[in-house]
């Protein structure tokens, strides 16, 4: 039973501090690597999936606080990471596990954070922190271990970069293209070009299972580069940063739309589609980060419990209400999904062209699988575009 | 989708009496359902035989039938009410089984009534274990291998395939009754036999054992638009093999990765869809192999359950309330989340705290019952606690149990490591502390996990608690303030849930000393909100729990507040009746303009519904926890008073200490409470009032005891002086038994004297509930017991109004009760127990608090006693309440009109659930120690019919023909002749044992003599009586215990007979008085006099019905 009863975190408690840009300070003990780190302070309400969360590139340059108190209970294994490394710039928890217990566990979370040089802090007031962010909004923060000098740290927090205006997709993206093929026994039915703006491992796999041969391309790829291989469809992934700052990607989306090739975007990909259609994007006060967000499909009236990780969102087009049609350079479009908690736009589609997107994560990981059907919908769209050549059984 | 307009009238079926496996969680769900339906303007009719429930209050339904939940009663109600639909999914297994029966007997079709909540096919698919397994495997998921068996031979064959140990599980039973784990053929024959009997469809499932796997539960909801949400995941700390009702459980699940959890979620949703639960809640259990991750589905309940009540309290997501809305057609997205007021119910709660539930057992009440925990639920109640970490929640939960032995302890050496590990290996009450002691004794986390199958993560958390304790113990005594370390160590300990008492133990300081230091260091808990969303949105409902964290969330208070202390976990002697009183107080005081604050830790109850009171604190009811709540509330605004009189002995026991700390205890003063509780002081009060009481004395040794006994004369009633609920009481007839008893008592609790009372033979026991405001006495009700004194008031049946007491008696009772109320200084409720012997009215005891019978009396007389009591405690007079119409304008429960209906309360005993280690049943003889778990009420025009109904509600209908077996103690032989003769005249065939038979024959009653069990089978192996009972040849049993009631070490024949009766479910009368009543009942049924009438109809006759407005309107935002 790998991991069971093993991997106890070591050493006496080292003091550490968490300081927000507004000066709010939390004192606690060091967790993970020693040192100092900065980023945008956000909270995640998921009760499972810390390993997937840590390795989600969309968390690049963010310090993530988990609202669930006990983190690390099931340790770390080599099957669940969503990318090649941990991306969060800092990690805030309340009760780090002393012992990892799970039949798949290979090492402890603490050991993994140290190994990857990720600095974290264990504080009592994770709820107080969450309420503060809920009221004041996400803001910059810093963690420092082995010190109690909050003043000095705050200075450096104020000097650290803002999230608004940050283009981070290129930072997290793959430098070279690579391909994910369908598993044994599943034939290749579609060729998909997936633009990696911070893609998670689960995404190409989900498409591959449906018979997609997925070529994952660097974030900066142009429309021509994306379409050079003549893909049946183009996928724009999730990713970190401010969509407004990723003009190159917006151009790519427009280019692809212009050729009428089927497009599917999620999260940042959805925001880019929105901008490509001329809609605005804006920064949410504290974002949606969790696995319990109710999203309503306006066409069916069905509600799905979905996995979210975004700080920016598509603005409701002026005049248009959810469900109503509005005009774009690429023909009429619709808002197809909304978040029932706060009415945020969660889905878009073009009516005359094969393009749609959602703000949430059909690949889940972590989170519920309610929206997994969207990948099949993308395949159907590709079938349609080919005049149903490979119409699905 | 808006709600269905075609539903105008709905019949809700309740769950009947509280029994092990089906407790007040169904009062909670039923009450929520009734409230929702009434808010929707639907006519609600309700059938539930349990008078102690809040749902059976006239104000929660348009027509409340406190009648047996039997087919014919339900048909009568349906015929009378003609509802559009029946809602059976909120009344537990009882209601579900009743619904199936209504369907199968064609009654639903006959009256064109629809089942809502779950259709018949869904119920079958969920409850029929075989069909359920086929559905699950059909979905490509796994279940344990198994075989369905209908005979013992099937069982043997199946075991040949599955091998031992094998799990036996009957279909359509509840709380695992009749189930178990067989490790050998003998055990198999025993358990499978019992299982086949227990199953209404004589069907058991034999199943591959997966003992030791991790056990999980998911609570789901689905609406008619196919939206599904998982409300909560619950992990059982005790692995597979211990019923979830008996396991220590934690929410959310702690040891699953997201992949594993989402897989479980996917399977659960697929199962719910396949089974077809389409408008409501359900619960699905899973087992996971800790070594391979292999996951199997154990079972589902297509209804709300104990776990869904727990999940509702754990998350703030009110499953039953929402299930009721879904049942009438709403969809999840149309229903608002009450807690946030903004977000919809179509979401999955996110917790930023940990919830732990611990079971409460009552083995001490059933000497001989096998205390090993297994697949068959044995606990009688539970406590839940919330903390920001597992250790904090666990330690709060353990102290919520109010069982000295439950919390982790550091007093004395832990004991031998090996011996402790061996004990951990066998699931038992208190296993968590055994685990802790084993760790103290040097066992490693791996050792403990190895022998128990408890996940190492949990064991390590207990290890962490132990390490914190050690650090605290080593830290310099906090008595010397200053050093950072002290406060640091103290903070750490409090964060890990240590009580001041535990810290005192470690630092060898008195608890109050620790409290002083703690406050001096400014170490106090904050109160955080159960908000369903981990603080992502603001919460508007003050549902709070204490934790040593940052930033308290107690909202500022406006109106003066009244804090009501609840009664904690259900236990025998203190159950739902007290929750009823607390909830009523809350409603009444809210209506009177106060802000009410409820403090309780029992997740099953209505009092812990965030809808019930202005504020809810989910907290242990210890002095420390209560003082902190009071402090927090005083910080937030004026506190007008704290009520300790309604939650039973638990809060009552705190009253003095609270007052000593300056807490404004209202109602009867702590000093007055002491006057009534202290034997000597109370004696003086009676003396002064010139009221006779049984002579008594106290003794520390046998010699002293003998002196007392000789002086007052045998028989005597002996009891330890320090316990309640009749614990350890026995009736002693001779020196030998007395010596033995005193010996045992002295051993059990050295230094505590034994109380010795003159035992009043052949005395009529009378229970009185009254209100006193200092001026006027309001006699709530006078209950005449059917069994004679000597059988605990909680266990004996009683009638109200009294059936044989005359005006003069009642007048005397009124004077005596008033004298006691005045003498003690009662403000509010008073319960007095009298014994009328040879025309003399003796006072047995007085309880200056709400009693078990308050709800019964309130319903029988249509008078809200608990509401009135709460108002009196806050200073209103009886006269004032009469003027307000809360109490009748004139008269009281002692002056009921002659045509008033007669209500009979009957106790429900759990004997059927217990077996000793050899699998024999435990005896059903009643005595002075209370052992019932619940009660029912039968109400009708005449005593006979009312009694018959009460019996029907407990055992199923009394027989109207067939065979009666009679075997009584010598002292009963005279008095049984007449009633038995009457039975013969009514057409019953009489069987009797020799002695009894002879007496009957001499009195001209034809009786067939049958062999005693002790005679064994006769020539041509003529079966003995026990065999005949088990063979189903007997329809009614009359068996009064030989020797004396309550005598320990029962005479075997009676014992065998009564346990056989329990096992076969044959009505068994154990007192002559009961026999007389049964005969009247049978006559009434034969005359076909049994009809149904709602409380509202009776009330209309007694006085104006309490107006619907009595229910505080739900807080804005609860409506969808
Ligand atoms: N195959 C099995 N092997 C071992 N234990 C089992 C098995 N099936 C059930 N159990 C245990 O028995 C308990 C009761 O079984 P369950 O199916 O839940 O019946 P109930 O309807 O009484 O809840 C479960 O909580 C579990 O701990
Ligand atoms: N002196 C007595 N004679 C006969 N029966 C008694 C006497 N005292 C108590 N009992 C019986 O014992 C039961 C329990 O005694 P009680 O004093 O009421 O204890 P508890 O506090 O458990 O209610 C009573 O209900 C009554 O039936
Ligand atoms: Mg179960
Ligand atoms: Mg009593």
Structure description:
The complex is a heterodimer of chains A (393) and B (1120). Chain A has 393 residues and is α/β, with parallel strands linked by helices. Helices cover 22% and strands 30% of the residues of chain A. Chain A has helices at residues 50-54, 109-115, 126-136, 150-159, 169-172, 202-209, 223-228, 247-258, 268-276, 373-385; strands at residues 15-20, 25-32, 36-44, 62-66, 70-71, 90-93, 95-96, 119-122, 139-145, 178-180, 190-195, 212-217, 233-236, 263-266, 281-297, 303-314, 325-326, 333-339, 345-350, 355-358. In chain A, strands 10, 11, 12, 13, 14, 15, 16, 17, 18, 19 and 20 form an 11-stranded mixed β-sheet that branches. In chain A, strands 1-2-8-6-4-3-9 form a 7-stranded mixed barrel. Chain A starts with 14 loop residues before the first strand and ends in an 8-residue tail after the last helix. With 1120 residues, chain B is of the alpha/beta class. Chain B has a 7-stranded antiparallel β-sheet with strand order 14-13-10-11-12-15-16, with helices on both faces. The radius of gyration of chain B is 28 Å and the shape is globular. Residues 793, 833, 845 of chain B line the site of one magnesium ion. One magnesium ion binds at residues 244, 285, 299 of chain B.
């Amino acid at each position: 039973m790998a991991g069971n009863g093993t991997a106890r975190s070591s050493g006496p408690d080292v003091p550490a501090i968490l300081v927000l840009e507004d000066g709010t300070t939390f004192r606690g003990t060091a967790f993970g690597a020693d040192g100092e780190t900065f980023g945008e302070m956000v909270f995640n309400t998921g009760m499972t999936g810390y390993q997937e969360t840590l390795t989600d590139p969309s968390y690049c340059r963010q310090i993530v606080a988990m609202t669930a108190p006990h983190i690390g209970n099931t340790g770390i294994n080599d099957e669940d990471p969503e990318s090649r490394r941990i991306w969060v710039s800092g990690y805030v928890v309340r009760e780090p596990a002393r012992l990892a217990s799970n039949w798949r566990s290979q090492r402890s979370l603490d050991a993994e954070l140290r190994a990857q040089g990720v600095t974290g802090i264990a504080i009592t007031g994770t709820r107080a922190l969450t309420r503060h962010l809920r009221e004041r909004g996400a803001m910059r923060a810093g963690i420092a271990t082995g010190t109690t000098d909050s003043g000095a740290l705050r200075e450096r927090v104020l000097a650290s970069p803002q999230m608004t205006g940050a283009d981070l997709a290129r930072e997290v993206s793959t430098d070279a293209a690579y391909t994910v093929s369908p598993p044994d026994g599943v034939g290749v039915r579609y060729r998909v070009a997936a633009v990696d703006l911070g893609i998670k491992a689960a995404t190409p796999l989900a498409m591959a299972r449906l018979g997609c041969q997925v070529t994952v391309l660097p974030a900066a790829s142009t429309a021509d580069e994306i379409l050079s291989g003549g893909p049946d469809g183009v996928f724009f992934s999730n990713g970190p940063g401010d969509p407004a700052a990723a003009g190159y990607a917006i151009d790519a989306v427009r280019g692809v739309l212009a050729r009428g090739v089927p497009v599917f975007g999620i999260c940042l990909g959805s925001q880019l589609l929105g901008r490509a259609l001329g809609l605005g994007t804006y920064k949410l006060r504290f974002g949606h980060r969790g696995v319990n967000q109710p999203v309503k499909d306006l066409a069916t009236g069905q509600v799905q419990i979905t996995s979210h990780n975004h700080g920016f969102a598509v603005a409701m087009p002026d005049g248009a209400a959810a469900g109503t049609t509005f005009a774009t350079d690429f023909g009429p479009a619709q808002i197809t999904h909304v978040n029932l908690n706060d009415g945020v736009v969660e889905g878009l589609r073009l009516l005359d062209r094969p393009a749609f997107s959602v703000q949430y994560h059909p690949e889940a990981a972590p989170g519920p699988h309610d929206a997994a059907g969207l990948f099949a919908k993308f395949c159907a769209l590709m079938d349609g575009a080919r005049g149903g050549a490979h119409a699905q059984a | 989708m808006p709600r269905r307009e075609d539903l105008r009238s709905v019949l809700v079926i309740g769950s009947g009496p509280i029994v092990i496996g089906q407790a007040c969680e169904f009062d909670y769900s039923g009450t929520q359902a009734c409230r929702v339906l009434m808010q929707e303007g639907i006519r609600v009719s309700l059938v539930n035989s349990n008078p102690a429930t809040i749902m059976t209050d006239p104000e929660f339904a348009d027509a409340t039938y406190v009648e047996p939940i039997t087919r014919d009663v339900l048909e009568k109600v349906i015929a009378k009410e003609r509802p559009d639909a029946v809602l059976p999914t909120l009344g537990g297994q009882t209601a579900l089984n009743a619904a199936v029966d209504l369907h199968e007997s064609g009654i639903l079709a006959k009256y064109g009534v629809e089942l809502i909540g779950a259709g018949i096919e869904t119920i079958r698919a969920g409850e029929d274990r075989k069909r359920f397994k086929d559905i699950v495997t059909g979905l490509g998921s796994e279940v344990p291998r198994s075989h369905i068996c209908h005979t013992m031979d099937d069982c043997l064959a199946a075991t040949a395939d599955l091998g031992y140990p094998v799990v036996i599980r009957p279909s359509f039973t509840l709380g695992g009754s009749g189930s178990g784990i067989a490790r050998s053929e003998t055990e198999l024959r025993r358990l499978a036999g019992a299982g086949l009997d227990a199953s209404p469809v004589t069907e058991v499932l034999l199943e591959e054992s997966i003992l030791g796997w991790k056990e999980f539960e998911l609570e789901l909801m689905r609406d008619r638009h196919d939206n599904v949400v998982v409300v909560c995941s619950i992990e059982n700390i005790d692995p597979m093999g211990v019923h979830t009702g008996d396991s220590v459980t934690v929410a959310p699940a702690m040891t699953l990765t997201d992949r594993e959890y989402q897989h479980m979620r996917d399977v659960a949703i697929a199962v719910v869809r396949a089974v077809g639960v389409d408008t409501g809640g359900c619960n699905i259990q899973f087992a996971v192999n800790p070594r391979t991750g292999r996951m199997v589905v154990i079972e589902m309940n297509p209804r709300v359950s104990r776990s869904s009540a727990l999940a509702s309290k754990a998350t703030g997501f009110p499953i039953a309330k929402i299930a009721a809305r879904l049942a009438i057609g709403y969809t999840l997205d149309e229903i608002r989340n009450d807690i946030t007021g903004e977000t919809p119910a179509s979401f999955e709660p996110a917790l930023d705290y940990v919830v732990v539930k611990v079971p409460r057992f009552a083995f001490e009440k059933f000497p001989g019952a096998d205390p090993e925990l297994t697949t068959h639920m044995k606990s009688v109640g539970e406590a839940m606690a919330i903390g920001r970490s597992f250790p904090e929640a666990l330690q709060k939960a353990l102290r919520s149990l109010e069982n000295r032995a439950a919390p982790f302890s550091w007093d004395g050496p832990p004991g031998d490591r090996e011996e402790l590990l061996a004990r951990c290996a066998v699931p038992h009450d208190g296993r968590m502390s055994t685990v802790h002691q084993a760790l103290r004794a040097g066992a490693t986390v791996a050792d403990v996990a190895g022998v128990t199958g408890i996940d190492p993560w949990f064991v390590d958390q207990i290890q962490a608690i132990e390490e914190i304790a050690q650090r605290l113990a080593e830290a310099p005594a906090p008595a010397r303030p200053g050093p950072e370390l002290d406060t640091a160590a103290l903070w750490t300990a409090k964060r890990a849930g240590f009580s001041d008492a535990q810290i005192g133990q470690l630092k060898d300081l008195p608890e109050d000393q620790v409290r002083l230091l703690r406050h001096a260091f400014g170490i106090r808990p904050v109160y955080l909100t159960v908000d369903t969303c981990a603080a992502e949105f603001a919460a508007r409902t003050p549902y709070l729990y204490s934790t040593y964290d940052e930033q308290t969330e107690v909202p500022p208070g406006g109106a003066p507040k009244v804090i009501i202390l609840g009664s904690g976990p259900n236990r025998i002697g203190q159950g739902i009746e007290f929750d009823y009183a607390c909830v009523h107080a809350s409603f009444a005081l809210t209506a009177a303009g106060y802000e009410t604050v409820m403090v309780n830790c029992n997740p099953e109850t209505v009092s812990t519904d965030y809808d019930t009171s202005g504020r809810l604190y989910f907290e242990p009811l210890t002095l420390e926890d209560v003082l902190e709540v009071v402090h927090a509330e005083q910080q937030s605004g004026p506190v007008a008073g704290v009520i300790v009189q309604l939650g039973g002995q638990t809060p009552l026991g705190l009253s003095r200490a609270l007052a000593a700390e300056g807490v404004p205890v209202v109602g009867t003063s702590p000093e007055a409470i002491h006057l009534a509780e202290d034997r000597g002081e109370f004696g003086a009060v009676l003396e002064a009032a010139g009221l006779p009481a049984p002579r008594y004395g106290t003794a520390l040794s046998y010699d002293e005891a003998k002196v007392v006994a000789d002086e007052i004369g045998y028989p005597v009633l002996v009891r330890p002086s320090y316990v309640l609920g009749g614990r350890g009481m026995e009736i002693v007839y001779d020196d030998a038994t007395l010596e033995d008893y005193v010996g045992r008592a002295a051993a059990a609790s050295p230094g505590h004297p034994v109380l010795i009372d003159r035992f009043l033979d052949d005395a009529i026991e009378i229970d009185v509930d009254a209100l006193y405001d200092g001026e006027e006495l309001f006699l709530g009700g006078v209950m005449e017991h059917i069994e004679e004194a000597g059988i605990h008031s909680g266990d004996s049946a009683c009638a109200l109004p009294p059936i044989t007491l005359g005006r003069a008696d009642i007048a005397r009772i009124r004077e005596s009760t008033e004298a006691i109320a005045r003498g003690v200084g009662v403000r509010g409720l008073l319960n007095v127990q009298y014994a009328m012997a040879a025309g003399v009215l003796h006072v047995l005891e007085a309880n200056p608090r709400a009693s078990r019978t308050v709800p019964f009396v309130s319903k029988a007389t249509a008078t809200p006693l608990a509401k009135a009591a709460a108002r009196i405690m806050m200073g209103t007079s009886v006269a004032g309440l009469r003027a307000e119409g809360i109490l009748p304008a004139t008269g009281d429960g002692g002056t009921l009109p002659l045509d008033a209906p007669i209500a009979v309360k009957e106790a429900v005993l759990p004997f059927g659930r217990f077996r000793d280690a050899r699998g024999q049943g435990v005896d059903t003889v009643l005595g002075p120690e209370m052992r019932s778990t619940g009660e029912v009420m039968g109400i009708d025009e005449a005593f006979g019919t009312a009694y018959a109904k009460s019996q029907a509600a407990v055992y199923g209908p009394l027989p109207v023909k067939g065979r009666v077996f009679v075997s009584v103690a010598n002292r009963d032989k005279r008095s049984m002749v007449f009633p038995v003769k009457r039975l013969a005249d009514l057409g019953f065939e009489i069987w009797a044992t020799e002695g009894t038979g002879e007496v009957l024959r001499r009195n001209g009653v034809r009786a067939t003599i049958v062999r005693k069990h002790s005679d064994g089978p006769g020539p041509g192996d003529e079966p003995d009586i026990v065999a005949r009972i088990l063979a189903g040849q007997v329809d009614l049993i009359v068996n009064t215990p030989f020797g004396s009631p309550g005598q320990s070490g029962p005479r075997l024949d009676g014992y065998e007979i009564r346990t056989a009766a329990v096992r076969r479910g044959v009505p068994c009368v154990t007192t002559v008085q009961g026999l007389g009543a049964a005969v009247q009942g049978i006559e009434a049924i034969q005359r076909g006099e049994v009809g149904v009438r709602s409380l509202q109809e009776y009330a209309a006759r007694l006085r104006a019905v309490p107006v619907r407005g009595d229910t505080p309107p739900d807080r804005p935002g609860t409506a969808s």
